[in-house]
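User: Let's play a game. I give you a shape written as tokens, and you guess the letters that built it. Ready? Here's round one.
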């Protein structure tokens, strides 16, 4: 089983300034839970109970969230508020949390390479917390674990996006195996609409094989002077070792204001229906 999931959470979250000036964007709440908690819940539901964070400056709130808060818990003990902490208490009890820091923002590929010390030589999941996923009926990462068990190579989650938005994503193309699986042949990071090989965009869910670390070590900086995970995955794809998976469910880009509002409305309406 894949037991570890890496969360790169060192980014500045500049699209949400000034809200993210002093707090991590991953701690912004959708209703009463921060974005990162949704991600950890998804990882645990997929069997990944070792949660590894690559953090940065001003990210200590993430560590504090997944820890005991004695004063608060003592104050609300025995009140109706106590049950509101049950969901995060369950995560603290069931998961092991480890942390390391990305001192310089050199891209997603660099963040994942820094996480090697926490992952070791084993396949692992990667969740970008500002991509909030709602799987149907299982979580997106749980779906991807099943894909990995079949193909035993790196897996990337993809969805179709409007052609005019391809320059926001890593875009893939390749051999279609069936309606949900594509053996990736080409990956391009944020191409222009004219240069994009398709409109299939990689979203913030990956399962990576451990050889990705050596590839990243030898990957020069690419677009924007950053080490791009897309470039390393292209090296794996050249050997037929990347499968793009069209997941079942819905994804909200909570790194954008529009997506954040859409996610809030979705979860609010679902809460109303369950009451």
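Assistant: Ready! My guess for every position:
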């Amino acid at each position: 089983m894949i037991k570890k999931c890496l969360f790169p959470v060192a980014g500045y979250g500049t699209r949400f300034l000034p809200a993210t000036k002093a707090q991590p964007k991953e701690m912004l709440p959708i209703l009463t839970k921060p974005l990162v908690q949704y991600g950890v819940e998804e990882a645990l539901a997929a069997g990944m109970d070792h949660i590894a964070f690559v953090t940065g400056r001003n990210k200590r709130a993430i560590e504090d969230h997944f820890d005991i808060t004695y004063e608060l818990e003592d104050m609300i003990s025995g009140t109706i508020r106590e049950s509101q902490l049950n969901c995060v208490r369950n995560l603290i009890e069931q998961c092991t949390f480890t942390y390391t820091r990305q001192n310089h923002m050199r891209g997603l590929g660099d963040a994942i390479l820094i996480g090697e010390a926490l992952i070791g030589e084993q396949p692992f999941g990667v969740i970008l917390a500002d991509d909030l996923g709602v799987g149907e009926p299982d979580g997106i990462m749980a779906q991807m674990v099943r894909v990995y068990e079949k193909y035993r190579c790196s897996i990337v989650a993809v969805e179709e996006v409007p052609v005019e938005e391809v320059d926001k994503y890593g875009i893939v193309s390749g051999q279609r195996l069936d309606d949900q699986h594509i053996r990736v042949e080409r990956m391009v990071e944020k191409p222009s609409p004219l240069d994009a090989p398709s409109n299939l965009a990689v979203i913030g869910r990956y399962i990576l094989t451990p050889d990705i670390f050596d590839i990243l070590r030898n990957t020069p900086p690419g677009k924007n002077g950053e080490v791009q995970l897309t470039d390393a995955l292209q090296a794996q794809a050249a050997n037929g070792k990347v499968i793009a998976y069209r997941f079942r469910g819905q994804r909200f880009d909570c790194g954008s204001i529009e997506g954040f509002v859409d996610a809030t409305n979705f979860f609010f309406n679902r809460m109303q229906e369950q009451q």
